[in-house]
Amino acid sequence: MGLISRFLKVSAAGTVASAGVFWGATRNDVFEPIDMTDPIFSSPFFKKYNPNSNPTLHDKCVRRVPLDKIKPELRENNGKLVEAFCAGVWGGMGYIAQRAILAQKYQGPETADQLWERKDLLKSSYEVGTIITDHFQVLEKTEDRIVVRCGDSPRITDVRPSDGLFEMGAVIKQEEGVAEFTLKSCFYQGLGKSESDSGPMPAHMEWLHRQYTKLWMTTAVYKTCVD
Known about the structure:
- By secondary structure, the protein is an alpha+beta fold.
- The chain has a single domain (2-15, 28-191, 200-222), classed as 2-Layer Sandwich (Alpha-D-Glucose-1,6-Bisphosphate, Chain A, domain 4).
- It has 7 helices and 7 strands, in the order H-H-E-H-E-H-H-H-E-E-E-E-E-H.
- It has helices at 2-17, 19-25, 44-49, 80-91, 96-106, 118-123, 203-222; strands at residues 30-32, 56-66, 131-132, 136-141, 145-150, 162-173, 178-189.
- A 7-stranded antiparallel β-sheet has the order 1-2-7-6-5-4-3.
- A hairpin with a 3-residue loop joins strand 4 and strand 5 (145-150).
- Helix 1 crosses helix 7 (203-222) and helix 4 packs across helix 7.
- It starts with a helix and ends in a 5-residue tail after the last helix.
């Protein structure tokens, strides 16, 4: 989990430098309970990449935005909202530090067919198979969610020591007058049997992960809203 730790610490450093702005901007990001009945745990990907049923770190961050603040062309539930939200995650300000670290380490001829540049991340429709900065690969796409595998390079196709699933969701709820955005994380040790009964991160890293998630949520939602 060393690379993930570095991402989180870089993000946290920037967060601390502007704590007031951060807490104000993310005050509407809420973590809601998620348990083993959630569909992510019954997905074929979870079973395939966590063959020993190792314990997980899992959470779901939710943000609800009034529909009148969402760009008109995204208000129909036709998959465009989740595409824009996903593009905001990877092409938004919240991913700049992690993208720079990954580019320094892995961008080159062998990964030239992947998404690296912000302009490409912002315009992609994130079809199944899309690879993002040699660390995320789209496994599933529907009209309201996009699921990526994370934890290591997509060039490693087998079960990995560090593995995980990350889901971006966006749903129009006309009866409530809101667009509901979700970021769902599920991390685990894929290779071998875990010697711990807890998840793959210590408590302080879980806290940093949640702050990073809120940063992603806020900057991604911004890309779906009217100016």
